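Lab notebook, bench 4. The sequencing result for the construct came back, and we need a structural model before the next group meeting so we can plan mutations. Quick request posted to the team channel:

Model the 3D structure of this chain.
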Amino acid sequence: MKNKILSGKNILVTGTARGMGRQMVETFAEMSANVFAHARKFTEQHADYCKEIADKFDTKIIPVYFELTNADEIKRGISEIRATKIPVNGLVNNAGITFNALFQMTTMEDVRNQFEVNFFAPFLLTQYIVKLMIRNKSGSIVNISSSAALDGNSGKSAYGSSKAALLCMTRCLSEELAANGIRANAICPGVTETDMVATMPDYAVNLQLESTFLGKFGKVSDIANVAAFLLSDYSSYITGQFIRVDGGVTEYGKRQS
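Done. Here's the predicted structure in token form:
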């Protein structure tokens, strides 16, 4: 049984239909948080999962559905959250999309799509949530960025740039909202065991494994646990930070023998 470090916390997590977001719902619930579990659209599978986790850990898991690239739907989703009368203590901007292509092969449409989901959507959503947090003079915002935002990897000019913009937003929020008792931090995952890894060719998988000190991929639970720490009172003196969760990446791309 894990420490109940999120007892009394009510947290909105975006992108909970799969991957890291889905794991966060379970991890946060196990740590006694109530969770607003966002997904783009209703599915029986997602609704059943939310109920299953709520029953398992005796907590509230409230599914909310809206398209993050639609400003009107975001506004409607926030209205639904407000209608519950449950204060929002934490926000995890987890939802995002990935794109890999060399710079010369990346179209402006590709760039706009990356920024629309990875930056513009969390920017607007955070503006709404911050208004709710300011009322209570407390809150923690965790943005899921990427190690690509810091490393500038080949083939990730659009994706890495969108995630780097999220880092800049994080640093600005940490300074602007500090007086209101609101903290903002970012997690920069390396390659993590999600659906994306399953589609990678063997040579790419091996290259990634060789580039980390630990010689293995991260698990979604590794990201969820760090997010839980940043949302908890244990991190009350941490804000404006970018935390890499990547297994230790070498400067030259391969582990030293």
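Residues 45 and 188 are 29 Å apart (CA to CA).
Will bring this to the meeting.
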